[in-house]
């Protein structure tokens, strides 16, 4: 990372973001109170189970929340601009050119009746009308070569169904990057792919990130993938951010029982002996009737009385490492008292 | 020496395709393996490599094309390979004649196939998608009870209700859950119902077909632990099919690796991880993400070029040669033999013969 980029302010600042879905059965707080910063050139992972709100949080940044979902509080600042106050047309210009998103299933996000070339050219010309079709075609082919597709001339004329899953995801990445966005949100981009293809895509994303210096938000439930690609991690549970920190801190000194539980419950391919897995007991939270207090408390082995009553505040447990857990609050208080006594 | 519960010899499963000459989709190609009593044999491979088809063919949910299946010393299926290789000359795009090998059907004696009904009690299956494998119109009690009724395992209503309760209890569900419908359960609970249904007939052998891939991470380990407990308690034998190598590595005593319908390597789980022989196994192991930032930063990864070829038109010779970084001319010409290179460690690769 050069000094130049370090001096710059944050690429993305999310503060106390709240997203709710107003369903006939009641309000579902999909995201409640998420805050983080993303620097230029940084890869952040958002980890959580299905239904933890990790995708909705990303949709909010892109202005893609589906009705009845709504942002009901907080702010999103992108390069100093308020994203939430942008009008529809401003959002359309913003999406694709400055922030792009790639999705889990490339088949459903590519248009089946247009050729790959057509779709890439359209993406480019939608944001820059002055560019000629020939020029756009040339840029599209450059982009496809960059994401490791060969036989580009022929690929441009093919339809999505003629490509394999891994190839389609490459096309999606090419389409996301064609306008040189500063931010790329990748929503489970490798979940639908096989391990060997997943390895290809991860390697590709790592090298593209080095070339383009964009910020990436990588949403996944796979901790292995996070360890592979991310600089920092945000762990979500039931719409709340339970822990956030640099990747090494999260993996080697987790400060929240949920993170700890996730890490412990995963079998490892490089394990030396057969150890019994230690699962997280219980079932995921019913988002229509979330428990009071800390959402993880009913499944937490260390739960105390206070956990069931009040949501813990965020406590700094290390450099850039924050956690929302009453255990850490207690520790912090004890430390403070110790200092005062001394 | 451990006793073999199930043995499969040269098993083939082809799915004919309408309007296409030849054998169609070659989903399982010449697979031989055995499973000992009380052990777990893991089966890994990428999607479309035929691991699920192999599991189902072993249970004869798909009728095999050829090969033999021996369960507990009794042959439950035996059939000769009904195809032969023929060389034909075809004209390519430029009109030049090219020699091409194709498979042509030949007549063979009929298959020996026993009635599976008594074996259905001994061999069961747990499916990948718990929601799709449970009848939405039946209560959980009816789903589990149906299996009991078919095999006439309970004498009266009372005994049947008790048995259903016992099974629900065993898989960690409440006895009141018997009156609920599948949609009222979470994915993890649905999978528990699927497991209770399989256990209802007191089987000896269970094919677990990706039983945890559809579940949340925090629930996966609960189900894995439960399957291990059941095995201990009831002396079950598993064929555990999954694409996630770390889970298979955890639960299995031995692991088989499949690529495009063929078994390329089979070894003890620890041995396979420490000393993989086949190039494909090496790639697969290096591709699995490890939840440890330092390890993933330091390790060398083998990244394969390209995608899996179509099983409709598999490559000649070794099926992996189109993507193998070490492929030689020989690999393209003839298929390597699946043989024991070290005690208990089988692999199919020409490089190992030299």
Walkthrough of the structure:
The complex is a heterodimer of chains A (342) and B (354). In chain A, helix 5 packs across helix 6 and helix 6 (133-146) crosses helix 8 (165-177). With 342 residues, chain A is α/β, with parallel strands linked by helices. The model of chain A is unreliable at 1-7 (pLDDT under 50). An eight-stranded mixed sheet of chain A has the order 6-7-8-3-9-10-12-11, with helices on both faces. Chain A has a four-stranded antiparallel sheet with strand order 2-1-4-5. In chain A, a hairpin with a 2-residue loop joins strand 4 and strand 5. Chain A has 14 helices and twelve strands. Chain A has helices at residues 3-7, 54-62, 88-97, 106-109, 116-127, 133-146, 152-156, 165-177, 195-212, 223-229, 247-252, 257-265, 305-309, 326-341, and strands spanning 12-23, 26-38, 43-47, 69-78, 81-82, 99-102, 183-187, 215-220, 232-237, 240-246, 315-318, 321-323. In chain A, 39% of the residues lie in helices and 23% in strands. Chain B has 354 residues and is an alpha/beta fold. Chain B has twelve helices and 15 strands. Chain B has helices at residues 51-58, 117-120, 130-133, 140-150, 157-170, 187-199, 217-234, 245-251, 269-274, 279-287, 293-298, 329-333, and strands at residues 4-15, 25-36, 40-44, 66-71, 74-79, 83-91, 97-105, 112-113, 123-126, 205-209, 237-241, 254-259, 262-268, 339-342, 345-347. In chain B, the strands form three sheets. An eight-stranded mixed sheet of chain B has the order 9-10-11-3-12-13-15-14, with helices on both faces. Chain B has a five-stranded antiparallel sheet with strand order 2-1-4-5-8, covered by helices on one side. Chain B has a two-stranded antiparallel ribbon with strand order 6-7. In chain B, helix 4 packs parallel to helix 6 (187-199). The radius of gyration of chain B is 22 Å and the shape is globular. The interface between A and B is large, with 46 and 42 residues.
